[in-house]
Amino acid sequence: MFRPAAVIATCLGLAAAPAAAQPAQPLDLAGCVRLALAHSAKVQAAHAEVAVARAQADQIDAALSTKVRLTSFAAPLYGADGGFGLGGTYRRELDRWGPYLHADAQIVKPIATFGRASAGSAAASARTLVEVEKARERSDAVRAEVARLYALRLYALSMATNLDSALQTLRKAVAKADEMYASGSGEIALPELSKLRYGALEVERFLRQARDGAELAERALKQAAGMAADATASFADDRLTLGDAPLADLAALVAAAQRDRPEFGQLRHGKAAVEAWEEAERTANRPVLFVAAQGAADWSPVRPRSYSAISMNAFNDYYVGVAVGVRVDADASLAAARAGEARAKAEWVAAQARLAETGIPLQVFKARQELASHCDLAAVADEQVKVTRKWAAFAAAAYAAGTGEAKDLLEGVGAHLLAKKAYYDHLLAARIARAELDQAIGARP
Question: Which domains are assigned to the chain?
Answer without folding.
Answer: 4-63+115-279+332-441 (1.20.1600.10)
